[in-house]
């Protein structure tokens, strides 16, 4: 927003900070518990950031709606209304993510198990920080706006009597707004207006409903066909960079040696005297008989 009071840059930054705190808390707890840190775990912060920012937008949108409904209400009533609107959706999405990753800990692959443990725990902490830390930040930001304080310096900002002498940019950055009016709650968001007045009536048209059902049927059929084409296993090429030296190796291995099947190795588990010629001949004879 162009208003130096209604600008919510710090609020958005605290939403990102909330995700960062969740990552630090989960990583610290898992490392303290002795869960091994593997390289795939380094991708977890990006997942947490995506979910955390999504929860932040839900909380802010609910807060703005509560502010429009109960403009003169107390902070307690506003926050209660916000949690009533946003907490359910945030809880359900977090719960499904946590269950998905904790179910993944049953895998036999240690690296995948560590990744799921770290990420699932981070989702739990992300939910806790969103419901506690970010809610408190919402209240503090609201009090700053109510006090007509600048978003950056938090110093009181006057309406200004001689705004005509200043540029609109100066008034927006150093006074409350270009118009010279005190900060007021924003109106309905243009995106909300679009979905309510245009997209909603369009989707609920009976012909559009039929088209949506047909498209979903085609999508479902394509998905079922795709499931029948899935091959079990993993292509080792996908684990390396495109310019890695192992890519030509795997290509040549598949081209020239794929018909021979996997390698067969003989492992001697006992301690033997390899310096003894008789023992060496016995091992060689065993290998020839196996061949």
Record keyword descriptors for this entry.
291 residues, single chain, 9 helices, mainly alpha, Multidrug efflux transporter AcrB transmembrane fold
What would your notes on this structure say?
This protein has three domains: 180 residues, Multidrug efflux transporter AcrB transmembrane fold (Up-down Bundle); 42 residues, no CATH class; 31 residues, no CATH class. About 2% of the residues have low confidence. The longest helix has 37 residues. Helix 1 runs antiparallel to helix 4, helix 2 runs antiparallel to helix 3 and helix 2 packs parallel to helix 4. With 291 residues, the protein is mainly α.
Short description:
This is PTHD3 protein. With 291 residues, the chain is mainly α.
Count of domains: 3
Q: Which CATH class of the largest domain?
A: Mainly Alpha
The DSSP helix count reads 9
Q: Strand-and-helix sequence, N→C?
A: HHHHHHHHH
Strand fraction equals: under 5%
Helix and strand topology:
Elements: H1 9-32, H2 44-69, H3 75-103, H4 110-146, H5 168-174, H6 190-203, H7 206-228, H8 246-257, H9 277-290
Helix pairs in contact: 1-2, 1-4, 2-3, 2-4, 3-4
